[in-house]
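testing teh design pipeline on a random one, pls ignore if ur not involved
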């Protein structure tokens, strides 16, 4: 049923549910024999004027550091028998999750959402947009 699963995690938020995402996604992967992918997104700076305050090579260094952190986190938090591919994207979180799922030909996405506040209605902004716009099945785990 699920040939490929994308697990989107946030390395910068401690209580982001990222361990639960890996556990849930790995279990789904075992159940269906799915290919597993883990994605984290390095957000863009928004306005170019903001980016001009950083060193020229800041972005490439930051992306390389995040890739190492992601691979370490994945290796420490997934079962040894699971072959999980790590990916780092740069841009808008929900947009990059949707793009990665399409590019990697995933038919399932696992993400987390914080407990809603009134202003969020049901899901956080990124989770809500992924659910609303993704062509794949989306599993939302609550923090």
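output:
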């Amino acid at each position: 049923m699920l040939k490929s699963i994308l697990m989107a995690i946030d390395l910068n938020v401690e209580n982001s549910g990222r361990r639960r995402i890996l556990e849930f996604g790995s279990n789904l992967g075992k159940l269906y024999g799915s290919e597993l992918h883990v994605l984290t997104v390095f957000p863009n700076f928004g306005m170019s004027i903001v980016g001009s305050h950083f060193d020229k090579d800041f972005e490439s260094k930051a992306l390389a550091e995040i890739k190492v952190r992601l691979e370490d986190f994945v290796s420490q938090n997934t079962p040894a028998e699971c072959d999980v591919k790590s990916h780092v994207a740069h841009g808008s979180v929900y947009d990059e999750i949707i793009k990665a799922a399409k590019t990697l030909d995933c038919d399932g996405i696992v993400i987390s959402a914080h407990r809603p506040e009134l202003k969020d209605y049901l899901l956080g902004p990124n989770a809500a947009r992924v659910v609303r716009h993704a062509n794949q099945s989306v599993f939302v785990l609550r923090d």
